[in-house]
């Protein structure tokens, strides 16, 4: 087996990374929590379980890809790393494409798994709006109360806060994290977004995660309505997150990271040092 | 006490492992969250608490067995480890049998604990279908909307994603995990399945966890209907998970693990190295 | 301040431990999640939030006491440690008394904090049964469907599983835990009990946690009905947990712990060793 | 980019700390879970999601600020550290002001993001009471059943328990915590408060978190009613938390921390030492 696998080994680092990003986003979408709640008309979950599903889906998407590509799983995050000079610009289009393909196939898998349920629920009609609408399972649509500018602001604000926290979690000088906790915290962050910024337009936050499934529903039978709906809403969750992401990243850099002394001296870290000292003392006494 | 216990010590490694696998699955089932919600008609929990119960039950099942047998708790997982050459084939039947017995006795315990509640709820009639059905407390039955092929696909897809993530969590070259976090993450993974793939047929994912309790309900008074229901559904959650499990395992191996360099060089791990360096710096300054 | 505190320093280890156990249980009860849900008639929480409240209350009770007394917070747990020779028998009555006092004062605090709410909800009548009953906020009462033997079995089974898992979490040879994760896991275990074994009689599991608040309600105005209700139910959650606790402890000792080799050799731990090796390799490359 | 950022570097430690405290509280409030549930009339969340939102908001607020200022995010916590001689008194007003400004702008952001939703929900009328009230999204108001003294007691008790646990989590001699777990536990503590002490007056616990948004609603169009409501309730969540905070801090110091031996000797820690020993043994065998 091992030898068999060794034969298939790909030496190109970039190909490996793209495969990892693809698989990570595929798993992220694969958790079709919305499909379950919608088609079961709320008997098999509620708003919270949908948010738990997408947050946990992201956690395991990250665990699958983190060691190979760093598990960006979001073109906005890749962009912000490029801007910060922590990721090569030339990889950005390849990563983004991998995200898009992963999201498209993830949506296809959800449709495959819930084919019977969706057919029964919708009576065979694949609709974007109305009581039997099923397009909302796959990508974001604005709520009735939401104006165009309201949607734009919502996505800029949400993605800004999202990226600000993502960058903060990566900032080692702001306090280290144990291995393995980081993906869980990103999942918790997505849950936070879901329970606090999901009612305007479903917090896409991720252009690939929104466009990929939208393209799938377009070809799978929901038709061009998926692009027309909400007054041509489709491009907002593609453009706004990039704006918000840069805004959030720069905010963190300017307010926090730029001011770190090269050697950590903040009260928190001094205290951590003290803690470490104590821990070590305990060991010494063994 | 210690000396008394030492007398009972079993030297055979395989017997110890089978006992651990048995006890682990016994505890996994022992958490009868479904019994509580069904018999209380939803006053003592909802769909989410059922999923929390089975996820957390698995977490503690793993904690009980992990140090002795590695806590497979699922014949599909044992099989995938055998295929990968990480578990001896000859142990597979013994592990699977231990799982089956553990699941059977776990179901018996749930029935014992909820005997009064089930009798009151069902009016003494142990039914597989209908408003007062109680068989669903113990094992999986397909939803009305689910076709035979739909059920097969659902289980193959769900188990494939499940095993893919399980194998990823075990892959140390994809980023280490702190001791003790691994069982929690497997529980989180089961919760993910529950909130996103549970409405078609209750995401069995585990042949022993499904067949054991089904056998118990068969002998305990629900009768042969437990095998006839859903057009002879009973064998699908036994066969499909093995197919899906292999599919998921091989997908991860071919897309991710096969391509690891022997010495870790991925961005993520380089970064971790840097982090470690920084952490060490902090200590040094003490 | 420091010097002031140093003056109050108590040198007696046992007194310090009793204070810690007292405070831990006080906090455990202090989280009156049931009071909130009952008196708000479900507008401020549901069954799950009650379980989250008691689970998290226990987590922080443990964090408050763990360093001083080991945070037993349950006479059943103290007893099982005594039986295993890991805790001196002479401390058992003192610990149990501290638990009882902590639980009594914790209940008093909940009543103080929810005095207005309870008065408004109950119309000033402190009842044990009926639609406006409030005694269930403080301690356990059997559900209508539950027979005497059913209640006894429920408590023996639940406490057995509870202690079995508690002892497993303490068993270092079954895989180590990172500091600080242990209290969280005990909380998760209590949540598991709540979502899967709470509908028969509210999973007391803890004689002190049940009797202390019951005594408080007795003196606070609910009267002797708190002891008469459920056919003199009150003594079941005091006796049954001790029986179940010993059963669970011995089960784990006989099935798992007795068979550990003195030097760990189980697959899981070998694997951990390997992981450690890899982690170290990464560091070395820095 | 790096060089650009370096140009903006602020050398003053206190300014950096104030910015961090400001940003932390800004993020804490930024998660407008209440806005979502209220304006969606419960279709996009429930009481639990509101609590999850504020708890998780705090977690990420802490992650953003912890390395720079220690992430107090609450004037009460800063005060208790000052009283314990662990924080300079002269920083207290500056920290508190940063908290207030962060909370004010956080509330403004929530209003911006939910402008359409709030307008639609309230029909354009910004009310403090009644079925279409929206002021409760931003700060605390007492429930109808709550008397003045009841509210005062509720806040003193809740904040006392809150600070008692916060100080316990910081007490290294009561058992160390892994880096990165501490912020998560503080979030869990806030969740505990929310599910168990939220129905009387919404557990403000934090004068800045309550007054800042109240000031915002005052200027944003809800008018002076935000100060008149509940019989001039507004000052209770400002004064009571300071009283409760000191009470809880001193309780912990007098009952637990004052009695720690300088060299750790408690059973728990001895046991940890033993565990460490065992862990080390495992490593040795590599």
TrEMBL record, chains A, B, C, D:
Keyword Metal-binding set for record: no
Compartments where located: Cell membrane
UniProt cross-references to Pfam families, sorted A to Z: MIP
One MF term in the entry's GO annotations: urea transmembrane transporter activity
Segments forming a coiled coil: none
Keywords: Cell membrane, Glycoprotein, Membrane, Repeat, Transmembrane, Transmembrane helix, Transport
GO CC annotations, alphabetized: basolateral plasma membrane
Catalytic activity field: H2O(in) = H2O(out); glycerol(in) = glycerol(out)
Transmembrane segments: 20-38, 50-73, 94-114, 148-169, 181-205, 232-255
Topology in the lipid bilayer: Multi-pass membrane protein
Family from the record: Belongs to the MIP/aquaporin (TC 1.A.8) family.
PANTHER family: AQUAPORIN OR AQUAGLYCEROPORIN RELATED, AQUAPORIN-10
The name this protein goes by in its record: Aquaporin 10b
